[in-house]
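Inputs:
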Amino acid sequence: MNDATSSGPWDALRAMPVPTLTTLFADEPDRLSRMVIEEAGLRFDFCKTHLNAAMLDALAELAEAQGFAARRDALFAGDVVNESEGRAAEHVAERGQGAPDAVAAARMLHARMRGLIDVIEAEAVGPFRHILHIGIGGSALGPNLLIDALGDDAERYDVAVVSNVDGMALDRVFRRFDPAATLIVVASKTFTTAETMLNAESALSWLAGNGVADPYGQVVALTAAPDRAVEWGVDETRILPFAESVGGRYSLWSSIGFPVALALGWDAFETLLEGAAAMDRHFRLAAPLQNAPLMAAFVDCYYAVVRGAETRAVFAYDERLALLPPYLQQLEMESNGKRVGVDGAALAVPSAPITWGGVGTDAQHAVFQLLHQGTHLVPVEFVAVIEPGDALDEAHHEALLINCFAQGAALMAGQPNDDPQRAYPGDRPSMTILIDRLDPARLGALLAFYEQRTFANAVLLGINPFDQWGVELGKTIARSIVEEGTERFDASTRALIARVRG
Ligand code: F6P
């Protein structure tokens, strides 16, 4: 079992002299070939990080000491890796990897999903032009990212993903969509999440209030709790279940991906799964220092644990990936934002850094000042795509990519100046992920890379990435306001509630 309660394994790394980035290139002539990994149409460039050969060897030893290989085997074997909830984490089975019985069960559920898509395509119900997908967290972020990233050419329906309980979110969609032609997709693993259920009720009322005779006839439910969906009123033939062992933020590969498969077509969805499977195989089989997710986790842990970086920033130099940072925020922070190890003892080292980011080049004119000259150490990640998605003059894409690469180079090299206000210290780390072209296979591989990197980080830190007990308190408090009144709260909170209630 991993020991996250001792900082011992990290001490050797802390004791190592820190090279400067520019000297690393001179000291290690083979750096480019060792620190770049190409896999599944993605190029991972770790060159501009401070990890030298000795540090990488130490990190590989640390991974071994933390039982990395056994833990990874346990993940793929479908063993219990989510100890606090006593279950496996079987999202890999959704893409055909992992325990044979879990893979077979996932295939059966995918077949059911495909069957319902065929029915909708054949217009046996509908016809639908609009899809209103209602869900939150893992039941919304993945589908929203995928449709936004890949929908431009292929999208066959107008899709809206609504997560916020703020009525504005739904109202905007109601104003745009035709109720008679709208398929309502209610996505909730538990089918109890308050925001989703309230939004779903309001969507039904909107249909009923606008002349739809059988509102439930236009509802599809995606859930691991099919009984609750039946109880709520959805016809069993339009409930697409998925396994309880698939975590919410890892669920886009399951029936939660239904709007993706419907909007982009079944072939695209299957290709997405195949791309993810290719990355899974790489993660399972590649040696530690040629293993992209593990190498990325080494970088993450080095900066978070050894160098004390509190955040990491991800900039997508591609409009199609604008929703990548919020997707990663849930994946990384809900998974690894923990204060105790697997055994419940307090961590001796920091856990996940805060993930933040944005879109380039916009972010250059907003937050990059801090990255170049601020006092915080922020490891930066650039994500860019070689093939443009637009049909404009190639000058646009050329400018986009040059900006991206120039930022990484400038963060590293800096620029001296006698005037301290104008000096750039440099030696600021970044890594770059360069994707051949943005298609379902590559995006599947990219998202699987992030999942496995998150898992690898958890193993190195000795924590469970598959539970999220920290979210429960907020849910309980919100419920108790409704059920028990405001007595239990402090004066400030009571006054805020009273002010609103008038
Ligand atoms: O925010 C907590 C959480 O449980 C996430 O893990 C999950 O993705 C989200 O709520 C939605 O949950 P559900 O799919 O059960 O509605």
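The two ends are 55 Å apart (CA to CA). Flag for discussion at group meeting.
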